[in-house]
Amino acid sequence: MTDLIQLERQLLARIASADERALEELRVTALGKKGAITELLKSLGTMSPEERKDKGPQFNGLRDRIAEAIAARKAQLEDRVLNERLATERVDVTLPVADVERGIIHPVSQVLDEITAIFADLGFAVAEGPDIEYDDYNFTKLNIPPEHPARQMHDTFYLKPQADGSRHLLRTHTSPVQVRTMLKQQPPIRIIAPGRSYRHDSDATHSPMFHQVEALVIDEETHLGNLRWLIEEFCKAFFEISNVRMRFRPSYFPFTEPSMEVDIGCDRSGNRIKIGDGNDWLELGGSGMVHPHVLELCGIDPKRYQGFAFGLGLDRMAMLKYAIPDIRSFFESDLRWLRHYGFMPLDIPSLEGGLSR
Ligand code: PHE
Predict the structure, then answer these.
(1) What separation in angstroms does the CA of 165 have from each of 141, 147, 283?
(2) What pLDDT digit, counting tens, does each position of 191-209 carry?
(3) Which of 216, 199, 213, 201 is nearest to 255 (CA)?
(4) How far is the CA of 289 from the centre of ligand 1 (A)?
(5) pTM
(6) What CA–CA distance (Å, rounded) separates 16 from 76?
(7) Could you tell me the distance, in angstroms and rounded to a whole number, from the CA of residue 306 to the centre of ligand 1?
(8) Which CATH number fits domain 106-341: 3.40.50.360, 2.70.98.10, 3.30.930.10, 3.30.310.80?
(9) Are 231 and 203 in contact, with CB atoms under 8 Å apart?
(10) For 27, how many CA atoms within 13 A lie in the half-sphere containing its CB?
């Protein structure tokens, strides 16, 4: 009995001053497989029933108290480590952030946010689709069946054929998002779809991966005047000027009828292109009234509904607005370029804030 009390006192004293390593050693020597208390418990098996009745509770009590003391000490040590870290790793959040740690927003992301803010204000939702697209959505449902000559104009990147012979592709424009939207939503539809597109093409104004922003409006009485007004209002807001000149040239896209190329008035007399003034024109993208056959292929009744769509080059708009000369520099991941042309993370574009400020 006195041995037990002594063992307990000794153990408790050592536990109270143990560090983590010593504590683990103590746990093994007391409670481990061959530990002192484990041995005591084992000895119960060889005792007479009376003796066991007497010693059993004593041994078990001892084991419980020691286990508890070890757990308590362990928690205490962990708390201490945490408190030390809290004391040494203090951060003064009021200090300015060092330049090296600050991220920068790419002009494409900034322009994308600007465009989204403008269209959101006009009641448009943002729709999305994947970069890897079905041939059916990129072409066939847009009234470009297999063997149609318009397919050749798209310089498509194809993926390996599927088991059934069909081939996925990198979408050549954001127009398949029109298809995806119409397949799952009945009119009225008002969406924009900004995103990446891919074509086998590369020079100062073409990159094999580029960005477009698609717009689609379908309702019962949507007409060309609405299309023209929308593009004009958008350009005024985006370029932050009140006098834009727009020009619509007849064009051809299989998925719109009539189809028009959209140009914006600009001045090229200096070294820079200036939007708004001047007598020159710059192409922004394609547009038109959605072809009734496309509506039909996408499950929308062309007798009841009509609408328009357009697709503008987003990188080109960023180049124009922020005077960036070469589109390829957008995708070279050169930090010096990004620091020069990029935006501060908290410069979130908004119409109230004057967009680019
Ligand atoms: N998808 C066409 C292109 O990339 C642009 C476009 C979009 C034309 C919508 C008409 C309507 O060239």
Answers:
(1) 18, 16, 38
(2) 999 999 999 887 777 789 9
(3) 216
(4) 11
(5) 0.71
(6) 10
(7) 17
(8) 3.30.930.10
(9) no
(10) 15
The tokens 């050549």 sit on which residue?
172
d(CA 273, CA 280): 9
| Pocket lining for ligand 1, CB < 6 angstroms | 173, 175, 214, 253, 256, 285-288, 309-311
Counting atoms of ligand 1 from 1, which one is nearest the CA of 259?
A: 10
Q: Collect all residues with Cβ–Cβ distance below 8 Å to 243 and sequence separation of at least 6.
A: 276, 277
Residue 244, SS3 per DSSP: coil
Q: How far is the CA of 294 from the centre of ligand 1 (A)?
A: 13
DSSP H helical ranges for the chain: 2-17, 20-31, 36-43, 49-88, 107-121, 135-138, 176-184, 224-239, 292-297, 314-322, 335-341
Give helix 49-88 / helix 20-31 axis angle, nearest 10°: 170
Atom of ligand 1 nearest to the CA of 174: 1
- Domain residue spans of the chain: 2-88, 106-341
DSSP for 292-309 reads: HHHHHHTT--TTT-EEEE
Tens of pLDDT, residue by residue over 286-318, are 999 999 999 999 999 999 999 999 999 999 899
- Only one residue has tokens 């689709």, namely 129
